[in-house]
Amino acid sequence: MIAIDTGGTFTDCVYISEGQLRVLKIFSTPADPSLAVTAPLATIHPGATPQIRHGTTVGTNTVLERNGARVAFVTTAGFEDTIAIGRQARARLYDWFAPAPDCLVPAELRFGIPERVSVEGKILRAPTDAELATLVEQIRAAPPELSPEAIAISLLFSFANPETERRVEAALRPLGLPISTSHRILPEFREYERASTTVVNAYLSPRMGSYLSHLEGHVSQWQAGSHIEVMQSSGGTIPARLAAQEPVRTILSGPAGGVIGACQVARWAGFDRVIGLDMGGTSTDVFLADSSAGPQRTRESLIDGVPVSVHMLDIHTIGAGGGSLARFDAGGMLHVGPESAGADPGPICFGRGTRPTVTDANLLLGRLDPSTFLGGSVHLDRSRAERIFHDQKGPLITAEALAAGMLRVVETNMEKAIRVISVERGYDPRQFTLIAFGGGGPLHACSLARALEIPVVIVPTMPGALSAVGILLADAVRDYSRTVMLHADRIDQIESIFFELELHAVEEFSAQPSEAIPERSLDLRYRGQGYELNVPFDPRHPKHSIQAFHQLHQQRYGFSDPRRPVEVVNVRLRMSAPAEPYTPPFREPRPGNGSSACYAERDIFYDGEFIRSRLYHRDQLHPGDILHGPTMITEYTSATILLPACTARVDGYGNLIVAIPEKTA
Amino acid sequence: MKPERLRPDSIDLAVFQSALHSIAEEMGAALRRTALSPNIKERRDYSCAVFDSAARVIAMGDHMPVHLGSLPMSVRAAVDAVSFAPGDIAVLNDPYAGGTHLPDITMVLPVFLPGADSPAFYVSNRAHHADVGGTFPGSMGPAREIYQEGLRIPPVRIVRAGEIEREVLDLILLNVRTSGERKGDLESQIGSCRVGERRMVELAEKYGEDQRHILIDELLDHSERLVRAELCKMPAGIFTAEDWMDNEGVTDSPHKIAVALHLNPEEASLLIDFTGSSPQVAGSINAVRAITLSACFYMLRCLLAEDAPATAGILRPLTLRTAPGTIVDALPPAPVAAGNVETSQRIVDVLLRALAQAVPDRVPAASAGTMSNLTIGGIDPRTGEPFTYYETTAGGMGARPSLDGISGVHTHMTNSLNTPIEALEHAYPFRVRRYGYRPSSGGAGRFKGGDGLIREIELLAEAQVTLLADRRKFRPYGLEGGEEGAPGCAWVMPSENKAQMDLPGKSTRLLSSGDILHLETPGGGGWGTPQKS
After folding, report:
1. Is residue B156 part of a domain?
2. ipTM (interface predicted TM)
3. How many Cβ atoms sit within 10 Å of the Cβ of residue A271?
4. Smallest CA–CA separation between A274 and chain B, in Å?
5. Count of CB atoms within 10 A of residue A130's CB?
6. Which of B435, B438, B527 to mutate against chain A (most A CBs within 10 Å)?
7. Chain A residues 421-480 with a CB less than 8 Å from chain B
8. How is chain A split among helix, strand and coil, in percent rounded to 5?
9. Counting CB atoms within 10 angstroms of each CB, which of A89, B50, B241, B289 has the fewest?
10. Parallel, antiparallel, or unpaired: how do β-strands A647-650 and A626-628 relate?
């Protein structure tokens, strides 16, 4: 098994050879991502079960760059515009000049079919065959420059009765276009979010389809019988054939690998309640994983302003990265991000940027080591950064003050992001461990942990290839759901609905090599509420779900009432086939102080002053070594800052485990 | 070397402000996720804010702009009326004691730090409840006096020393049509206040008392500086404008809102004078002064960058002049339900019309200028229980200098979401027949006004239907030669063979099962002379 994760800069390839995880890092090829995906294969011996597991950015980039398919949208007649209207709210409350949101479906390609299903699922009006024929003609008659390349069908209440959607789909088949139907993609209530998710699927399907078939061609040339699995945003893989049909499930393919990888590495190290921090060049992703429930998931994601409501790992992204730009507002307050210098012009110290970035601030404060940054291959121009910081320091006295201020502001933004996924969801961050990766995560982790009173930070071994590791170790997963809207006193009827879903699932999963395990859960709410909480469902004890709901409501929102009627909104089934188990080699720690890895002493800025600090090469540390802050530990793609009074030890797997002292004040 | 900062808290301030804002947002999330009524949980018709010990607003969530200036008045009223002890929460909705209109119920929780005998902060939320009693289901009808608009609650304690005051709660619940839903929504407001309290206590632990005071003062000063920096760039002069409300729902005579904007860039200040506006009226379009202040707050806030903090400091450069007893400064017992939702929008329209003369390239043409408030109440035949539905429908946004207006989007003083059709039909005995853009309703112009919306709802039960809308006679204006947006309209298509029945802007009708209600909202005004094609 080989995992290949396409990233913005690098494509990482991870595989297991002789019990060891091997990593190959090559530069990505954005024009044709498959080049970088197939290149490393030449150097790897296929082995017995050649399976390629892939984390792809094709989905995300297609949405971000708005270069997906021309989609024809079919809905209940009278509701054609709903895909553009959205929810009527504006994204920016106080901005008179906010641009109109751009709908993925052009106005000319929104079609209505006369039909209606009631809230109970009764067909009140079915389209006639003549009306279906007319619809086919309307779509066919689109002018050539608007000729649709994919079709999305989302009718009102299709989750309650999919019959009419199926008929419309059958009628449109002869057009020979890929069709996405809402009852398959997301059979859940809220018509706009369901339609939007279905449209995104259609928007991605031609591109993802051709990308994956191209890739499969390459891979089967490399080794006959090999096949591709694609990482989904939910944290499990699906066969490429399914990913091509339901590409909307792969939008956060790479970041989901990061979550799974981080959780797995933390678990090996003995931590199972973790908050993840992945800081890259333009943004920072944060997520939370609790021991029993695993990584949190969400159904309320927005991808570049477009709602996508399939289950995804709850990855909260903010515009705070190494390239984030600083500015002072008219009142003199310092802001950092979300604008980013990006790859071009990049930070000042890379030679072209002209505005202060977080990377420049880290450099000026001694927190980047030019000699080890990307192996010393990039020249960092410190004096240029110093000069421009001095010119743009606003009301501050020195360039260092601006740099230190920028780090505080950007760390505050990250702290806020962590609060959103922890405190706002009812979790106390003090009971969690912070796992930091990506280029910038380890630089800021100690100081964030201190602010949030998180006692331990892990900087995993191979922080640059964590996504690929996660993809390699992920389970094969398929999610099914259905909105049922049942009173909880009829919870005993739920079993038959699960039975139906499972029949369907077993059919789809029969192609999987290993046995699939069903995981059943329910979305419950107090009758009348608008949001649900997901709790496990055990067919032998259906009522336990209701007790669990009351407890969870108390934990999340500070109140619960066992006398209040509860409603079952959605039934969820997750089929998962576990990945082959893998345990990384463990090297017995021996007491040490890492002195042989120490290569320099520098002044590094912490909490208002520069302090003389030792610099260590991470790859020369040994299990059992203990280092004391103030210290910086450098490696190829990243560097870890240990604040004064923090202590790091290298565990048997090569992770840095940092203890954050309790506040003494 | 230890760097010094000229203004000691340029960065501390950003950190502090960010923490306060996230607390207001967290309160909103807690409210939304636990409330029962679609108007709160789906449409997010609520606001949350944090106040200092002097009841000055120091952070507001990005919720409903109409509450910007009025929520602080509620907190002030509660602080004046109630001698708070730890664990208390006050409730109020009286528009004449810091409220806006009766359906907006506000809660105020004083945050006591350990060992302190007076509050260090207040946290507050306000939510629009779908019914608070009165003559018309939904409490948004064409009333003549405030007594017909529902239960009026002065600032009283609904939670005392941590325990819900059952007597107060029962008094409220007995006076409203949908008591179960109200109880759930009130409980979720209480929960949200407690979330805010917990977080404020945690935040306070990080700062000493002196440091807190310095930061709060600096935060307010900062907002003030941002506004003054904008005012400095304005031309000096007095800019006047007026616009009209169609009628008040009792007679058909129009009512004027007039403003004079006195811009003084040298002092970086402004005086806003509404004294030429019409006297208060017998219908519900009267706005209390808090609403007029909110509209001014909103205009000032929009001149700043999107991430500028909305605090009490924004209002410091402003002098607001209103004449008591007018429709922009109503006195009891004038009814006020539409003042909050309709007149508030017109006040913004008038302010922007005046501002456009000073800075034409910074101001959009008039947006729909009405929230087209629809309330429907009756008995749900599926359950035998009473229901009350409330929803506003967006219209077109006015065209901007350089950009067309957006179609079908909430503008200015509101920013609620629509209720999903699939949630609506689950909760109420309705069937939505049509929902889409209203073609060609936006005003023509070099930049075109956004189009309004069309919505058709079929009733599946007999119900009292009440509409509160405006911009039927006086259309949304264009600017710089742009044309007006189309006016709104509504009618009923009866189920039986009866003639189509027009629904005036402010009206209430008892309709039968099978009747179809057809609503069209106004388009936005155009900007710039239309180019001949």
Report:
1. yes
2. 0.92
3. 20
4. 21
5. 8
6. B435
7. 423-424
8. 35, 30, 35
9. A89
10. antiparallel
Shortest alpha-carbon distance between residue B64 and chain A (Å): 9
Q: Which CA distances in Å does B372 have to A507, B140, B529?
A: 51, 11, 28
Other CB atoms within 10 A of residue B317 CB: 19
Domain assignment of residue B122, yes or no: yes
More confident residue, B352 or B33: B352
- The contacts of residue B500 (CB under 8 Å, 6+ apart) are B491, B492, B493, B494
Please give the pLDDT value at position B460.
97
What distances in angstroms separate CA B501 from CA A2, B491, B512, one per listed residue? 70, 5, 13
Residue B384 per-residue DSSP state: T
* Residues of chain A with C-beta less than 8 angstroms from the C-beta of B18: 412-413, 416
d(CA B305, CA A488): 48
Report the interhelical angle of A58-65 vs A191-222 (nearest 10°).
Answer: 130
Q: Which residues from chain A sit within 8 angstroms of residue B409, using beta carbons?
A: 88-90
Q: What is the pLDDT of residues A186-195, one digit of tens each?
A: 988 899 999 9
* Contact state of B308 with A329 under an 8 Å Cβ cutoff: yes
Where does a domain end: B221, B248, B273? B221
Nearest alpha carbon to residue A11 among A51, A41, A48, A46: A41
Q: What is the distance between the alpha carbons of residues B300 and B314, in angstroms, rounded to a whole number?
A: 7
A 556-575: CB under 8 A from B:
556-559, 564
Residue B2: per-residue pLDDT: 37
Question: Min CA distance, A136 vs chain B (Å)?
Answer: 22
Q: Position of tokens 């069309």? A: B454
Relative to beta strand A433-437, strand A274-279 is parallel
> Which two tokens mark A393?
């320091």
Q: Quick check: B523 and B409 in contact, CB under 8 A?
A: no
**Which one is predicted more confidently, A592 or B34?**
A592
Provide the strand spans (E) within A398-506: 433-437, 456-459, 476-487
Q: Which of residues 61-120 of A touch B (CB under 8 A)?
A: 78-82, 84-85, 87-90, 92-101, 116, 118-119
Query: Which of A76, A119, A190, A419 should one mutate to test binding to chain B, selecting the residue with the greatest count of B CBs within 10 A?
Result: A119
Backbone angles phi, psi at B135, to 5 degrees: -65, -40
Other C-beta atoms within 10 Å of A537: how many? Answer: 23
In this predicted structure, what is the pLDDT of residue B67?
Answer: 84
Q: How far apart are CA B40 and CA B45, in angstroms?
A: 5
Look at residues B180, B201, B221 and tell me which one is the last residue of a structural domain. Answer: B221
Domains and CATH numbers, chain A: 30-40+53-252 (no CATH), 254-320+411-472 (3.30.420.40), 324-404 (no CATH), 476-577 (3.30.1490)
**Integer Cα distance of B179 and B468 in angstroms:** 24
| pLDDT attached to residue A292 | 66
CA–CA separation, A484 and A647 (whole Å): 52
Residue B360: cis peptide before it, omega within 30 degrees of 0: no
Q: What is the tally of structural domains in chain B?
A: 2
Residues of B in contact with A608 (CB under 8 A): 2-3
CA–CA dist A418, A421 (Å, integer) = 5
For residue B197, give its domain range: 10-221
Q: How far apart are CA B142 and CA B156, in angstroms?
A: 28
Confidence (pTM): 0.89
Instruction: For residue B420, give the DSSP letter.
Output: P
Position B6 scores a pLDDT of 38
More confident residue, B251 or B9: B251
Three-state secondary structure of A113-145: ECCEECCCCCEEECCCHHHHHHHHHHHHCCCHH
Burial-class residue A41 by CB neighbours within 10 Å (0-12, 13-18, 19+): buried
